[in-house]
Specification:
Number of helices: 14
Structural class: mainly alpha
Oligomer: single chain
Number of strands: 10
Radius of gyration: 28 Å
Strand order of the largest sheet: 3-4-5
Strand content: 5-15%
Order of helices and strands: EHEEEEHHHHHHEHEEHEHHEHHH
Distance between the termini: 113 Å
Helix content: 25-40%
């Protein structure tokens, strides 16, 4: 290619980068292609090359290590990453996805239902993928009865595997199990992807993993390949969900080593009341639960001992008997939470203000004496045994009713 003439220097050229067919276009050839495109076109006013993040090759940093700049073929180029949708963009997307018609308000019901479903997805990481499947998810029987984040992930993967079953002929349940095992094996290595060579070694040990290679790898697939040809799940949250599902359904599993705990895994386990049963699978060393959102009716008697749950949202949660010994609760939201019989020995960063709006501290154990004294002074009802008082009041009412009945019979 020759350099464009001077009249083209004000032109802007857009190239759509590779999105699939990665086995053919490996990392080396992809980098060579990018250099081939950039070098002869540097005279243009602007050249824009789009590429999905997982297909972007390893490149050199800019000479001065400036953020947002990369070196490609000797040219310093800006690299911009598109951000996820915010609430405003999501609303705009849904209006375009479900356009309205004259005297027909069905689209408003669909938009409302879609917003309710999206609202259950606490993880922003999955929103773009969720939106692309939104119409199928809305009709999924998996989330008709209960719309939780775990159920939505399950419906999302189930929808994808149904299409894969039709293409490959491998039963959906078998594909589900294969994906769960692959996610577990990748997570045990502490990485996001697995090379084809490592996958072949795994297939030698676990024969059913051969079905991974039968999966159709495309842009909207939940499993795809990066510029180096490594297999990876399109979102880390999908990998986390599959690991969680596998452990919940196989509590007697022997992993050989512990998995790293994450916010999303903890949230899904607690939402399914399986945190205590599955905690043996995880390593809590240096675990940080940042802004963990646990809005579930009942997580009583769970063990969060020595965990770092800074910013955890436990508003209104039923935490009766929960073990928080040694846990870091800095910035935690505990308003209206029931901490009756909770264990708080050695719990860090607990303040009077944090506990002032809880529902109950009756029979709590290990609370700092100074904090306990201050709360009893400012709000003594927190330590009242309302269960006992309710029984006493019921006994009193029954006694009065009996006496009244005797009096009426006497009359």
């Amino acid at each position: 290619m020759q350099a464009p003439p001077c009249w083209a220097r004000g032109a802007c050229t857009l190239f759509v980068g590779p999105d699939r067919d990665i086995p053919v276009l490996n990392a080396f050839r992809l980098l060579k292609l990018l250099r081939f495109l950039v070098c002869p076109l540097f005279h243009l006013f602007r050249v824009i090359i789009t590429c999905r993040t997982q297909f972007f090759p390893d490149v050199e940093k800019s000479p001065f290590q400036q953020p947002g700049l990369i070196s490609l073929g000797g040219y310093v180029c800006p690299a911009k990453y598109l951000s996820l949708f915010n609430d405003e963009k999501i609303e705009l997307y849904l209006k375009k996805r479900f356009p309205g018609k004259i005297l027909n308000f069905e689209h408003k019901k669909k938009i409302k239902k879609a917003n309710e479903l999206i609202g259950q997805m606490g993880s922003l990481r999955c929103r773009p993928m969720l939106l692309s499947y939104i119409d199928k998810l809305m009709d999924s029987p998996i989330i008709q009865a209960e719309q939780s984040e775990y159920k939505i992930y399950k419906a999302l993967v189930d929808s994808w595997l149904c299409r894969e079953e039709a293409k490959s002929g491998v039963p959906k349940n078998e594909l589900f199990r294969v994906c769960e095992i692959l996610a577990k094996e990748i997570s045990l290595k502490g990485v996001r992807e697995i090379s084809e060579a490592d996958l072949d070694l795994l297939i030698d040990d676990i024969a059913e993993l051969k079905h991974v290679k039968a999966i159709d790898i495309k842009g909207r697939s939940l499993l795809n390949r990066n510029s180096g040809g490594d297999y990876r799940f399109s979102h880390h949250s999908i990998q986390e969900f599959l690991v969680t599902k596998h452990l919940i359904e196989n509590p007697g599993l022997n992993l050989g080593k512990k998995l790293p705990m994450t916010n999303l895994i903890a949230q899904m386990l607690i939402a399914n009341s399986k945190f205590k049963a599955c905690q043996k699978f995880f390593d809590f060393d240096n675990t940080i639960f940042k802004n963990l959102n646990i809005r579930v009716p009942e997580i009583s008697e769970e063990d969060l001992k020595n965990t770092d749950i800074k910013g955890v949202d436990l508003k209104g949660a039923a935490l009766r008997g929960i073990c928080l010994n040694g846990a870091n609760l800095k910035g935690a939201e505990l308003s209206r939470a029931n901490l009756r019989e909770a264990e708080l020995s050695g719990a860090k960063n607990i303040t009077v203000e944090m506990l002032f709006d809880v529902k109950s501290l009756c029979q709590v154990k290990g609370l700092d004496p100074k904090i306990e004294a201050e709360l009893k002074k400012r709000k003594p009802t927190l330590f009242d045994d309302f269960v006992l008082m309710k029984r006493i009041n019921k006994y009193r009412v029954n006694s009065i009713n009996r006496e009244l009945s005797k009096f009426q019979r006497g009359i």
